[in-house]
């Protein structure tokens, strides 16, 4: 067997891929110092196109590589995340883009202090843009509870899972040149925690005075933000009950988030029967 054939036949060590992604996270010149949040968003937008009725969309295929999906408004800015992963794809050519993007979501959450998220390999990339999903499958931040339920029920989630997943907004920020909104949700946007829920309940959220789209800022400092879709979680009785539970009990949030995020990343994926479920050690620990 030739050397490269032997290398190709060697099963991929996913912890090595995990470690390579973990090493690429920090950059003091980017946003709050980490690419972690934008990688979580890439993994979520790749998966959140799933439609349980037609079985279309989901992380399988990595169709966001192609136009028109790469140009959908909701995906603005995600080329930053895709480009960051390109050298890792080159280093580990055996991994599919769709596995790489979903693994990157797991790495980012774990490395930023979040829960361990079990992960399965087995996604296959689509060859052409024919598999792209239509625009409009991801949530619209200007809308409220009815819209959130329509979007997430279509994927097969319930109210508790919707709230758990939204807790990822502890991470990262809005960018005026991407979504049009501005600012972070929490004071520690590179640490995974339950602070999003705590702040939703503890702060007074008032309309931001600006010419941009309607969003809220915290009255006390004006430095944090909430989208209309975030505030919907405290304006709906059922959603609010889960917000209160997660604000009080971070362990419960971590456990529920890990389960919901794994489910999100697996929506519609036809895993091979023998696909192992893997868990990874933190590289930074
Ligand atoms: Fe989100 N999100 N998200 N979000 N999101 C944005 C940024 C992040 C909505 C709207 C927005 C989830 C659910 C929702 C992240 C993870 C998740 C932005 C700003 C908007 C707008 C984009 C920009 O300007 O860069 C709406 C509406 C929903 C409805 O539920 C879910 C679910 C997840 C993951 C589980 C993360 C992380 C970010 C930060 C990205 C960054 O670049 O910092």
From TrEMBL:
Pfam families referenced in this protein's UniProt entry, alphabetically: peroxidase (PF00141)
PROSITE patterns: PEROXIDASE_1, PEROXIDASE_2, PEROXIDASE_4
InterPro entries: Ccp1-like, Haem_peroxidase, Haem_peroxidase_sf, Peroxidase_I, Peroxidases_AS, Peroxidases_heam-ligand_BS
Subcellular location: Mitochondrion intermembrane space; Mitochondrion matrix
Ranges for domain Plant heme peroxidase family profile: 81-269
Enzyme class, UniProt record, top EC level: oxidoreductase
GO MF annotation terms: cytochrome-c peroxidase activity
Record EC number: 1.11.1.-
Catalyzed reactions per annotation: 2 Fe(II)-[cytochrome c] + H2O2 + 2 H(+) = 2 Fe(III)-[cytochrome c] + 2 H2O
Keywords: Heme, Iron, Metal-binding, Mitochondrion, Oxidoreductase, Peroxidase, Transit peptide
Family of the protein in this entry: Belongs to the peroxidase family. Cytochrome c peroxidase subfamily.
Function of the protein: Destroys radicals which are normally produced within the cells and which are toxic to biological systems.
Name the record gives this protein: Peroxidase
């Amino acid at each position: 067997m030739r050397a490269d054939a032997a290398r190709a036949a060697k099963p991929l060590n996913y912890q090595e891929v995990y470690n390579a992604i973990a090493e690429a996270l920090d950059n003091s010149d980017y946003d709050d110092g980490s690419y972690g949040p934008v990688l979580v968003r890439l993994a979520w937008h790749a998966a959140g196109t799933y439609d349980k009725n037609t079985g279309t969309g989901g992380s399988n295929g990595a169709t966001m590589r192609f136009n028109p999906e790469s140009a959908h408004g909701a995906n603005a800015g995600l080329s930053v995340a895709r480009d960051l992963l390109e050298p890792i794809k080159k280093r580990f050519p055996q991994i599919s883009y769709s596995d790489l993007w979903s693994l990157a979501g797991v790495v980012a959450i774990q490395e930023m202090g979040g829960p361990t998220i079990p992960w399965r390999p087995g996604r296959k990339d689509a060859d052409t843009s024919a598999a792209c999903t239509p625009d409009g499958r991801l949530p619209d931040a200007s809308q409220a509870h009815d819209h959130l339920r329509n979007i997430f029920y279509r994927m097969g989630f319930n109210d508790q899972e919707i709230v758990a997943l939204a807790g990822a907004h502890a991470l990262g920020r809005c960018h005026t040149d991407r979504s049009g909104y501005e600012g972070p949700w929490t004071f520690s946007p590179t640490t995974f925690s339950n602070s999003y829920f705590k702040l939703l309940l503890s702060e007074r959220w008032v309309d931001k005075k600006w010419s941009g789209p309607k969003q809220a800022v915290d009255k006390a400092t004006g430095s944090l933000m909430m989208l209309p879709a975030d505030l919907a979680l405290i304006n709906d009785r059922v959603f609010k009950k889960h917000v209160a539970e997660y604000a009080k009990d971070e362990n419960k949030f971590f456990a529920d988030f890990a389960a919901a995020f794994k489910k999100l990343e697996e929506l519609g994926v036809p895993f091979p029967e023998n696909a192992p479920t893997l868990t990874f050690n933190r590289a930074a620990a």
